[in-house]
């Protein structure tokens, strides 16, 4: 009788356990100078991690500081490694995992908003339905003619995703999104320098 071969009991044959990946919103305060954004992004791409959303803007003109907000997905220990490595880059002043900070304070998560421009072309019933649905989503018409609308919508990324899905069969032409801007809840600033 033939029995299937079993691998020998050895330390080299550990079963692979996949750690659950989570979405994290990181807020990074950096010097506003050339090449800093490339160095921060290089930290992610060099380790094979995707950036789901990226926004950056100068926040304190007199101190020449910018704030980079990155939404990424990874196992908790990998996120911790990324934060630790980002903290070591010279022009980085502070890195805060807004998702982890909110969890530590027992809060729902950071306040996250995104802006999108959504172009929808259509006539007749589709045009009327697009206008009706935009009102339900509190999207604002910022451009229109007899053949199309451009809607401006702000809110959580999930709201924007839903709006785009609903507009697709009504004549969705183009979408432009800003990426997530995020801030911690409460009165204390998480990012200060």
UniProtKB/TrEMBL annotation:
Protein's GO biological process: isoleucine biosynthetic process; L-valine biosynthetic process
Domain ACT: 25-100
EC number(s) per entry: 2.2.1.6
Coiled coil stretches, renumbered: none
A GO cellular component annotation in the UniProt record: cytosol
Pathway(s) per entry: Amino-acid biosynthesis; L-valine biosynthesis; L-valine from pyruvate: step 1/4; Amino-acid biosynthesis; L-isoleucine biosynthesis; L-isoleucine from 2-oxobutanoate: step 1/4
Major enzyme class: transferase
Catalytic activity: 2 pyruvate + H(+) = (2S)-2-acetolactate + CO2
PROSITE patterns in UniProt: ACT (PS51671)
InterPro entries the record matches: Acetalactate_synth_ssu (IPR004789), Acetolactate_synth/TF_NikR_C (IPR027271), Acetolactate_synth_ssu_C (IPR019455), ACT-like_dom_sf (IPR045865), ACT_dom (IPR002912), AHAS_ACT (IPR039557), AHAS_small-like_ACT (IPR054480)
Keyword line: Amino-acid biosynthesis, Branched-chain amino acid biosynthesis, Transferase
GO MF terms, alphabetically ordered: acetolactate synthase activity; acetolactate synthase regulator activity
Pfam families for this protein: ACT_AHAS_ss (PF22629), ALS_ss_C (PF10369)
PANTHER family registered for this protein in UniProt: ACETOLACTATE SYNTHASE SMALL SUBUNIT (PTHR30239), ACETOLACTATE SYNTHASE SMALL SUBUNIT 1, CHLOROPLASTIC (PTHR30239:SF0)
Assembly, per entry: Dimer of large and small chains.
Functional note: Catalyzes the conversion of 2 pyruvate molecules into acetolactate in the first common step of the biosynthetic pathway of the branched-amino acids such as leucine, isoleucine, and valine.
Entry similarity comment: Belongs to the acetolactate synthase small subunit family.
This protein's name: Acetolactate synthase small subunit
């Amino acid at each position: 009788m033939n029995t299937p071969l079993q691998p020998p009991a050895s330390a080299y044959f550990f079963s692979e356990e996949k750690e659950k990946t989570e979405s994290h919103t990181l807020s990074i305060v950096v010097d506003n100078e050339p090449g800093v954004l490339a160095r921060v992004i290089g930290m992610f791409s060099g380790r094979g991690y995707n950036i789901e959303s990226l926004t950056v803007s100068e926040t304190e003109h007199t101190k020449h500081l910018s704030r980079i907000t990155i939404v990424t997905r990874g196992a908790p220990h990998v996120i911790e490694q990324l934060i630790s490595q980002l903290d070591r880059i010279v022009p980085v002043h502070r890195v805060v995992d807004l998702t982890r900070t909110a969890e530590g304070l027992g809060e729902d998560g950071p306040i996250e908003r995104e802006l999108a421009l959504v172009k929808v072309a259509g006539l007749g019933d589709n045009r009327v339905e697009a206008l009706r649905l935009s009102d339900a989503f509190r999207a604002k018409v910022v451009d229109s003619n007899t053949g199309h609308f451009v809607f401006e919508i702000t809110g959580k990324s999930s709201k924007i995703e839903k709006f785009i899905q609903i507009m697709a069969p009504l004549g969705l032409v183009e979408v432009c999104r800003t990426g997530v801007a995020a801030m911690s809840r409460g009165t204390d600033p998480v990012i200060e320098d």
